[in-house]
Amino acid sequence: LPRFESYGLFFLGYLERHTNRLAQNTKAALINSIMKQARKWIGTWWPRPAPPSATGSSASSTQKAGWIE
């Protein structure tokens, strides 16, 4: 298995490639570009968790009863 650091280097390389495509005139524009690309990359590689089930049972009601369904 590859080491964890290689994923960090891959991520930094991805950010650098995508932020260098366009010239940013200000520091704020550069930060916004980095944040946009980071959100895009994270959304691609880590999908959002599934929404909670709508069965009507909540964690607080099961905790009050002292048992878990």
Automatic annotation (TrEMBL):
Residues 53-62 have a biased composition (Low complexity). It comes from the Eukaryota. Residues 46-69 are annotated as: Disordered. This is Uncharacterized protein. The lineage of its organism: Eukaryota, Metazoa, Ecdysozoa, Arthropoda, Crustacea.
